[in-house]
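Service request form, structural biology core

Requester: graduate student, group of Dr. S.
Request type: structure prediction, single chain
Budget code: on file
Notes: please return the result as structure tokens.

Sequence provided:
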Amino acid sequence: MILVAMDTATPSTVAGVLLADGRVIEARDDPPEGSRGEHASRLLVLVERALAEGGVTWDDVERIAVGVGPGGFTGLRIGIATARALAQARGLPLVPVSSLAALAAGADAAESPIAAVVDARRGEVFAGVWAGERELLAPVALAPEALAARLGTLDLTVQAVGDGAVRFRTELEGAGVVVPVDGSAVHRIAAAPLCRLGAAGEPADRDRLLPDYRREPDAKPPYR
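Core staff response, request fulfilled:
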């Protein structure tokens, strides 16, 4: 199967192409710390770069996968709208992938629990926990102290990855959670697990595929 995958749930813009021989070509943009990313201007450029580096064209692609969050509201809207438009234009099936599951799957820890933790701003994180393919904590938005308390109740040592794990390292490590060093690649969503999950997942109704926000947006319409 040849598959195109993309994720814009975090400030990073990630694109990948799964080739027929199992190789994954990744193209990504990781903006400076504190930036919300430039998803709108980078996503299609990165997708086309990955296709070119893989030596394939859109005529070869058999499905599209997209990270649906939870994550940044604007980024998610851009990524999902782009994926839906491409799927419609190319007549391709579209597979939703949990961005947190992709982040967790990028940490090589066998069956040990992996907490994927994304900075949700406003003093919260988006988090989920997996042990291999088994979900121990469904994606949720909560305060880092509350996440640390939940992780502390698990019977195994948990490793936390993601920009939220880096930002709230003190709270998590205080509960016995292991957080890899800042700058480690495991703190970023990678194309390889995104593609693998997209290849294994079930296609969704393209027109009903929506972002997984997990909380109300920062900007709300005025009260009437």
